[in-house]
Amino acid sequence: MDxxxxxxxxLIDSATSSLKTARNMLSEFTGVADPTxxxxxxxxxxxxxxxxxxxxxxxxxxxxxxxxxxxxxxxPVPANYASKSKLVEGDGMKxxxxxxxxxxxxxxxxxxxxxxxxxxxxxxGQYKILSEGKSYRVLLxxxxxxxxxxxDQVTIILPKDDDAIWGAVENxxxxxxxxxxxxxxxxxxxxxxxxxxxxx
Length: 200
Hints:
Layout: H1 2-30, H2 38-43, E1 49-52, E2 55-62, E3 66-68, E4 74-76, H3 79-85, E5 92-98, E6 103-109, E7 113-123, E8 126-131, E9 134-137, H4 140-145, E10 153-159, E11 168-173, H5 175-194
Antiparallel strand pairs: 1-2, 2-3, 2-5, 3-4, 5-6, 7-8, 7-10, 8-9, 10-11
Protein backbone atom coordinates (compact mmCIF):
# COMPACT_ATOMS: atom_id res chain seq x y z
CA MET A 1 0.00 0.00 0.00
CA ASP A 2 2.78 2.43 0.98
CA UNK A 3 4.72 1.50 -2.19
CA UNK A 4 1.67 2.26 -4.32
CA UNK A 5 1.15 5.64 -2.64
CA UNK A 6 4.83 6.48 -3.15
CA UNK A 7 4.59 5.51 -6.84
CA UNK A 8 1.46 7.64 -7.29
CA UNK A 9 3.15 10.61 -5.60
CA UNK A 10 6.21 10.20 -7.86
CA LEU A 11 3.97 10.12 -10.95
CA ILE A 12 2.17 13.28 -9.82
CA ASP A 13 5.48 15.05 -9.13
CA SER A 14 6.81 13.98 -12.54
CA ALA A 15 3.66 15.14 -14.34
CA THR A 16 3.70 18.48 -12.48
CA SER A 17 7.35 19.00 -13.38
CA SER A 18 6.71 18.15 -17.05
CA LEU A 19 3.75 20.53 -17.17
CA LYS A 20 5.80 23.34 -15.63
CA THR A 21 8.60 22.77 -18.15
CA ALA A 22 6.11 22.76 -21.04
CA ARG A 23 4.54 26.02 -19.80
CA ASN A 24 7.97 27.66 -19.50
CA MET A 25 8.89 26.57 -23.04
CA LEU A 26 5.56 27.86 -24.35
CA SER A 27 6.08 31.15 -22.53
CA GLU A 28 9.58 31.55 -24.01
CA PHE A 29 8.30 30.69 -27.49
CA THR A 30 5.25 33.00 -27.46
CA GLY A 31 6.31 35.69 -25.02
CA VAL A 32 3.02 35.21 -23.16
CA ALA A 33 3.41 34.39 -19.47
CA ASP A 34 -0.05 32.84 -19.07
CA PRO A 35 -0.85 30.27 -21.80
CA THR A 36 -4.61 30.64 -21.20
CA UNK A 37 -4.31 34.14 -22.66
CA UNK A 38 -2.91 32.85 -25.97
CA UNK A 39 -6.36 32.49 -27.53
CA UNK A 40 -7.31 36.07 -26.75
CA UNK A 41 -3.85 37.39 -27.64
CA UNK A 42 -4.14 35.83 -31.10
CA UNK A 43 -7.59 37.38 -31.57
CA UNK A 44 -6.52 40.85 -30.48
CA UNK A 45 -6.10 43.55 -33.08
CA UNK A 46 -2.61 44.06 -34.47
CA UNK A 47 -3.16 47.78 -34.07
CA UNK A 48 -2.61 47.64 -30.34
CA UNK A 49 -1.40 51.11 -29.50
CA UNK A 50 -2.40 54.17 -31.48
CA UNK A 51 -1.40 57.64 -30.25
CA UNK A 52 -4.27 60.12 -30.23
CA UNK A 53 -4.40 63.79 -29.39
CA UNK A 54 -5.71 63.21 -25.88
CA UNK A 55 -3.86 60.00 -25.00
CA UNK A 56 -3.52 56.62 -26.68
CA UNK A 57 -5.80 53.84 -27.83
CA UNK A 58 -5.19 50.14 -27.21
CA UNK A 59 -7.31 47.43 -28.79
CA UNK A 60 -7.71 43.96 -27.41
CA UNK A 61 -10.03 41.09 -26.54
CA UNK A 62 -12.09 40.64 -23.38
CA UNK A 63 -11.08 37.39 -21.66
CA UNK A 64 -13.99 37.33 -19.22
CA UNK A 65 -12.27 39.53 -16.66
CA UNK A 66 -9.61 41.67 -18.38
CA UNK A 67 -8.76 43.07 -21.79
CA UNK A 68 -5.78 41.32 -23.43
CA UNK A 69 -3.76 43.10 -26.13
CA UNK A 70 -1.83 41.37 -28.97
CA UNK A 71 1.33 41.20 -26.83
CA UNK A 72 -0.50 39.41 -24.02
CA UNK A 73 -0.56 42.47 -21.74
CA UNK A 74 -3.69 42.56 -19.59
CA UNK A 75 -5.69 45.63 -18.65
CA PRO A 76 -8.20 45.34 -15.79
CA VAL A 77 -11.76 46.01 -16.94
CA PRO A 78 -13.89 47.39 -14.08
CA ALA A 79 -16.15 44.54 -12.95
CA ASN A 80 -19.20 46.81 -12.66
CA TYR A 81 -18.76 47.99 -16.26
CA ALA A 82 -18.24 44.43 -17.57
CA SER A 83 -21.26 43.23 -15.61
CA LYS A 84 -23.65 46.02 -16.63
CA SER A 85 -22.48 45.92 -20.26
CA LYS A 86 -22.79 42.11 -20.25
CA LEU A 87 -19.41 41.75 -21.92
CA VAL A 88 -18.80 38.26 -23.25
CA GLU A 89 -15.50 36.42 -23.47
CA GLY A 90 -14.04 37.13 -26.93
CA ASP A 91 -15.61 40.60 -27.38
CA GLY A 92 -13.32 43.10 -29.11
CA MET A 93 -12.59 46.16 -26.98
CA LYS A 94 -10.93 49.52 -27.24
CA UNK A 95 -9.18 51.18 -24.32
CA UNK A 96 -8.46 54.89 -24.44
CA UNK A 97 -5.85 56.05 -21.91
CA UNK A 98 -6.11 59.81 -21.55
CA UNK A 99 -3.19 62.11 -20.81
CA UNK A 100 -4.58 62.38 -17.27
CA UNK A 101 -4.27 58.60 -16.89
CA UNK A 102 -7.99 57.86 -17.09
CA UNK A 103 -8.94 54.48 -18.59
CA UNK A 104 -12.03 54.54 -20.83
CA UNK A 105 -13.22 51.18 -22.19
CA UNK A 106 -15.57 50.61 -25.11
CA UNK A 107 -16.90 47.44 -26.70
CA UNK A 108 -16.16 47.62 -30.45
CA UNK A 109 -16.56 44.13 -31.86
CA UNK A 110 -19.05 41.91 -29.98
CA UNK A 111 -18.92 38.18 -30.72
CA UNK A 112 -22.02 36.20 -31.66
CA UNK A 113 -23.85 35.13 -28.52
CA UNK A 114 -26.02 32.37 -27.15
CA UNK A 115 -27.89 32.07 -23.85
CA UNK A 116 -28.02 29.06 -21.55
CA UNK A 117 -29.65 28.42 -18.20
CA UNK A 118 -27.93 26.94 -15.19
CA UNK A 119 -27.62 26.85 -11.43
CA UNK A 120 -25.40 29.10 -9.31
CA UNK A 121 -22.82 27.11 -7.36
CA UNK A 122 -19.72 27.91 -5.34
CA UNK A 123 -16.60 26.00 -6.34
CA UNK A 124 -13.01 26.62 -5.25
CA GLY A 125 -14.17 29.78 -3.47
CA GLN A 126 -15.62 31.23 -6.70
CA TYR A 127 -19.15 31.63 -8.01
CA LYS A 128 -19.86 29.56 -11.09
CA ILE A 129 -22.86 28.57 -13.18
CA LEU A 130 -23.35 24.86 -13.70
CA SER A 131 -24.82 24.36 -17.17
CA GLU A 132 -24.49 21.84 -20.00
CA GLY A 133 -22.35 19.61 -17.80
CA LYS A 134 -19.75 22.36 -17.34
CA SER A 135 -19.15 25.14 -14.82
CA TYR A 136 -18.70 28.70 -16.12
CA ARG A 137 -17.11 31.44 -14.03
CA VAL A 138 -19.07 34.65 -13.50
CA LEU A 139 -18.06 38.03 -12.13
CA LEU A 140 -18.69 38.57 -8.43
CA UNK A 141 -20.09 42.01 -9.32
CA UNK A 142 -22.88 40.32 -11.32
CA UNK A 143 -23.72 37.93 -8.49
CA UNK A 144 -23.93 40.74 -5.93
CA UNK A 145 -25.83 43.06 -8.32
CA UNK A 146 -28.59 40.47 -8.75
CA UNK A 147 -28.33 39.43 -5.07
CA UNK A 148 -28.01 35.87 -6.34
CA UNK A 149 -27.56 32.96 -3.96
CA UNK A 150 -26.26 29.44 -4.41
CA UNK A 151 -29.03 27.32 -5.92
CA ASP A 152 -30.64 30.16 -7.89
CA GLN A 153 -31.50 29.59 -11.56
CA VAL A 154 -29.28 31.85 -13.68
CA THR A 155 -29.30 32.64 -17.40
CA ILE A 156 -25.84 33.44 -18.77
CA ILE A 157 -24.57 34.70 -22.12
CA LEU A 158 -21.75 32.77 -23.82
CA PRO A 159 -19.90 33.21 -27.10
CA LYS A 160 -21.83 31.28 -29.74
CA ASP A 161 -18.94 29.51 -31.47
CA ASP A 162 -16.27 29.31 -28.79
CA ASP A 163 -15.47 27.19 -25.76
CA ALA A 164 -15.74 29.74 -22.97
CA ILE A 165 -14.51 29.76 -19.37
CA TRP A 166 -16.55 32.82 -18.37
CA GLY A 167 -20.23 33.65 -18.78
CA ALA A 168 -22.02 37.00 -18.48
CA VAL A 169 -25.08 37.00 -16.22
CA GLU A 170 -28.27 37.91 -18.13
CA ASN A 171 -30.80 37.38 -15.33
CA UNK A 172 -31.45 35.46 -12.12
CA UNK A 173 -34.49 33.57 -10.88
CA UNK A 174 -34.24 33.01 -7.12
CA UNK A 175 -34.39 29.38 -6.03
CA UNK A 176 -37.67 29.76 -4.11
CA UNK A 177 -39.37 31.36 -7.14
CA UNK A 178 -38.10 28.60 -9.45
CA UNK A 179 -39.32 25.94 -7.00
CA UNK A 180 -42.76 27.60 -6.71
CA UNK A 181 -43.09 27.82 -10.50
CA UNK A 182 -41.99 24.19 -10.90
CA UNK A 183 -44.56 23.04 -8.30
CA UNK A 184 -47.29 25.10 -10.00
CA UNK A 185 -46.39 23.58 -13.37
CA UNK A 186 -46.46 20.04 -11.95
CA UNK A 187 -49.82 20.72 -10.26
CA UNK A 188 -51.18 22.09 -13.54
CA UNK A 189 -50.04 19.00 -15.44
CA UNK A 190 -51.54 16.68 -12.78
CA UNK A 191 -54.84 18.60 -12.84
CA UNK A 192 -54.87 18.30 -16.63
CA UNK A 193 -54.48 14.53 -16.38
CA UNK A 194 -57.24 14.25 -13.76
CA UNK A 195 -59.73 16.44 -15.65
CA UNK A 196 -62.21 14.34 -17.63
CA UNK A 197 -62.06 14.68 -21.39
CA UNK A 198 -65.34 16.39 -22.36
CA UNK A 199 -65.19 14.94 -25.85
CA UNK A 200 -65.45 11.37 -24.52
